[in-house]
Amino acid sequence: MNNFINKNYTGHIVFSELKEIADFYNSLSDSIMYFILLGTKIENNLDAHIFSSMHGTLDSIRDVLLKGRINDAYALLRKYYDSTFINVYLNLYLKNNYSIDNLIVKQIDKWIEGIETIPEYRIISSYIKNSCLLKPITLLLDKDKRYKKIRERCNDNTHYNFFHNVLSNDNEIYNPVRLKMLDLFSSDLNDIFIQHFSYVFYLNDHYMMSSDYIDALDNGISPGENSQYLIAPFIQDIFDTVIIKKRNDIAVLLKNNSRMKIE
Questions:
Q1: Count of structural domains within the chain
Q2: Is residue 253 a contact partner of residue 136, using CB atoms and an 8 Å limit?
Q3: Which of 83, 142, 154, 156 could cysteine-pair with 161, CB 3.0–4.6 Å?
Q4: Is residue 65, in this structure, part of any structural domain at all?
């Protein structure tokens, strides 16, 4: 191990946060695999595959950061950021365009089939930000313009826009602000996750559902009254440790606009 990558570095909270968020996506992918996502021909739930991919990206970020490559980790963080917006865009576009007269939404289906690419980030972002359906969440997320700054940091590191972006990948020199850079990375990671969590569950609050309801049906047992509104423990856990703790305003909005029994 490089002398500059010591216990103070590897013991930073960002590494446990990356594992917690990665594990969350893995659990979410498993729990929604057989939920029907209307508007596509794909057999399993499209989001389940995207969440599983995100789990992999976050694992990769953790591996890269453990080697001290903060610049490379930011490039992967931008990839994670992009994937969250693609995921929200797909769900929003399907909701807006699926109907009894349009059972297969062609733009999304062609992307799944590998015939057409997804629109560029600028178009996706504008589509989400201008959505009336998502406006309550967007207003809260956008109130301090933090996401514009996160995006700029990700781009600066991806494109080596400044010399200090180069140095953050160089472990052969002493960097006195390395731990502060991890602090900032942790903050950016959590903000991106909160944004994604907010949009996903505002659009699809049934994704929070505990397995109790489905398990009862699978076993030929009548589900308990209102058991379809119970939420999965792993979702409640991260709601408590991340959403309430870091963005209680968003936690309140999600609680007030969901049928699910969020504690």
A1: 1
A2: yes
A3: 156
A4: yes
Report the pLDDT averaged over residues 226-245: 91
Print the domain residue range for 109: 7-256
| φ, ψ (nearest 5 deg) of residue 102 | -140, 70
- 2 part of a folded domain: no
Residue 1 covered by a domain: no
Beta bridge partners of 209: 231
| Mean pLDDT to the nearest integer, 41-48 | 90
Rg, Å, the chain Cα set: 20
Could you please report the per-residue DSSP string of 164-201? HHHHTT-TTS--TTHHHHHHHHHHHHHHHHHHHHHHHH
Distance of CA 195 to the CA centre of its chain: 7
82 contacts: CB under 8 Å, gap ≥ 6: 121
Phi, psi of 231 (to 5 degrees): -100, 155
Q: Return phi, psi of residue 99, to 5°.
A: -160, 175
How does pLDDT run across 169-193, given as a tens digit for each residue? 877 777 788 899 999 999 999 999 9
User: What are the structure tokens assigned to 7, written together?
Assistant: 């216990």
pTM: 0.93
